Amino acid sequence: MGNFAIIVHPIEISDVYRRLKFLRRFPLPAAEAVTRSLPPFKLSKITGIQSPYGKTTGYFICCPLTSAQMVQLPQGKVIKKIIQAGRLAERLDVGIVGLGAMTALVGDAGVTLAGNLKIAVTTGNAFALVTALEAAVKAAEAMGMDPGGAEFVVVGAGMPAGSVVARLLARKVRFLTLFAENNRELDYLSVRILKESGLAVKITADIRRAVRRADILINVTGAAGGIIDVSELKPGAVVCDVTRPRDLARRVAELRDDVFAIEGALVEVPGHVDLGFNLGLPPGTVSAGMAETMMLALEDRYELCSLGHELSVGQADEIAGLARKHRFRVSGLRCFDRAVNPEQIAAIRRKAIRSLSRLQKE
User: Which terminus of the chain has fewer Cβ atoms in its 10 Å neighbourhood, N or C?
Assistant: First the structure.
């Protein structure tokens, strides 16, 4: 018996080939069709998680749909497959199931799944949000930036998650600009931030102005890919894309080799964790959403957590406190569900320096 399960899925069809090698013989359309038809299955057992306050074990359960399939297939079919994976977790007799990657965002972000299961469910989104902000600061430092003097910009600050991001950032930064297409959405938020943290934030409905001034841009809206012109980002800027699909981060990676795009953080798990499967991440690390599931199991908190698309500052603070208690810590940066290595950062930084030099000569 394990204490938790985490539902994962292949990011691309190449990830399926690592587990189901026979599919390599099939043409791509046939391999994708086979993948869609497979039932969820137990991928591995997770052992070795131990903090000063307890230990836990769990399972990875594979929901065999790629990221593209989760976007392209009818939502009802995708949710049905995720529910099947959740019921497999029930049969494995765990106390809580966590949703990984796209499974945490499809439909109503775990609410329907929770209504169809007898065990607790978490999306992991609260800890993912907390660690994404920490990752953005680490990314800025890696680019040679002083976060204390940097201009932070939150795109989508009028949305519930954007409001939480803005309020969390306001505790730690000196310069913060909030963007929403309707400034009235931000009037109340700016007053609230001033009362909570003493920071007078700037608000704007001019996306070009917001993008041009950003040293560190936090995107909290899936619509950003259509309204942000990545050519207007400063060389050396950091873009942290906390939404899925990561359209903005992908556009930055494709069009700007002098801007650092990340999705969030890698988290080091306490103990000597054996995931039983190679996720393509550095040893002993997982995504923040996975880490949230593990720390709730360590707490014996088998209850609904981080469901729906509306999170609160209180939820974020509580999960951050559990992470400190059980010694889960940010240990790296992540983009496109892969670790970012120092060589990649150094290459972006060199190109940013060259771009700035050209701009100064013009």
Answer: C
pTM summary value: 0.89
pLDDT (tens digit per residue) in 327-348? 999 999 998 878 899 999 999 9
| CATH class of the structural domain 133-264+338-361 | alpha beta
Tokens of 56: 């836990």
Structure tokens, 192? 């609230």
Q: Shortest CA distance to 265 belongs to which of 240, 243, 247, 296? A: 240
- CB distance 198 to 223 below 8 Å: no
Residue 324 sits at the vertex; the CA angle it makes with 320 and 328, to the nearest 5 degrees, is: 95
What whole-number distance in Å separates Cα of residue 77 and Cα of residue 255?
A: 34
**From CA 246, how far away is CA 228, in angstroms rounded?**
13
Which phi and psi angles does 280 have, rounded to 5°?
80, 20
Tens-digit pLDDT profile for residues 81-135: 999 999 999 999 999 999 887 777 776 778 888 889 999 999 888 999 999 999 9
